[in-house]
Amino acid sequence: MDQEYFKKRKQKFLVQSVIWYTFLALLSYFLPEVMIFYVLCGAYDVSRNGDIDGRMLYRYFFGNGVPTWALSPFNILMDLLTLPFVNKKVYQLDELPEECQAEVKQVIESVKVENVVEELTSRAEKVQRSMIFFKWYGNNIENFYTVPDFHKDYKYIKTIGISIFNKSESTDEHYGPLRTTLRVLYNINDITSKDSYIKVRDTENRWCEKKMFIFDDTLSHQSFNETDEARYVLFVDIVRPSKCHFVMELWVKFIALIMQKMNHIFYSSWVPLK
Q1: How many angstroms separate the Cα of 58 from the Cα of each of 52, 65, 214?
Q2: Which of 17, 95, 155, 231, CA to CA, is 20 to 30 A from 192?
Q3: Segment 2-24, tens digit of pLDDT
Q4: Helices 2-30 and 32-47, interaxial angle, to 10°?
């Protein structure tokens, strides 16, 4: 199942890459000024990671960072619209609006009450890296398993899912697509080893030490589970704090219309649990 699934995903990614680079070639030829603008936006966007090296630049402009580069002008606009709330890149829960904190706490409490790990284990143990979505950009997704609180209408929470890594499974460095939201991660099962963690540039979060981690996922990041136990992590996308919350929410709704069936582009290395 894994090999066939990933083969199809890689074929789709290849087609999408060909379309993107064809677009850039045409843009360079017919509208060089626009292409220069795109390059400048990408240069600023990737520079936010700090400690830039050739490997990062290659990944961003020619590898799995291409979708993030394609969206860089929009993401820069989001940074401007959310001022004076400066993007902190990595956050603590108490730095978010109180109403947002309450929603995150409610979802996490639901995970603690429900037998999420037990419900997913029989399917997740068959693949090295899997994922299940319950909500995607505000739209509820029906699965074989339902958690009622995951389908509630929230002011801040727009995406809810669970990522499962089986033993000795890690990702490459990668980038999230959009800065309309921030990513909240919460380790569901009790990890005992320090070898299960997430790294966002120079910042590392070991799940055995701290179960929650909040960050701007358009930064280059990488997840590791170099242990002999599975790792279950709840991920929640929240609308970024802003003086004009309704404007940000409108953007999220607009994006939902476009990306309703496009999560495979950004999660092509995960097998969906259905």
Answers
A1: 11, 9, 26
A2: 95
A3: 556 456 656 666 776 788 788 88
A4: 130
Cα dist from 267 to 10, 133, 163, 191, 271, whole Å: 11, 11, 10, 24, 8
Report whether 223 contacts 170 (CB < 8 A).
yes
Q: Nearest Cα to 92, choosing from 84, 83, 101?
A: 101
- Give 174's DSSP letter: B
Name which of 21, 3, 266, 272 is nearest 123 in CA terms: 272
Q: What is the pTM (predicted TM-score) of this model?
A: 0.90
Tokens describing residue 252:
């999220």
| Closest to 220 (Cα-Cα) out of 96, 57, 78 | 57
Neighbouring residues of 201: CB distance < 8 A, sequence distance ≥ 6: 49, 50, 51, 219, 220, 221
- How do residues 147-186 score in pLDDT, each as one tens digit? 999 999 999 999 999 999 999 999 989 999 899 999 999 9
Token pair listed for 87: 């993007």
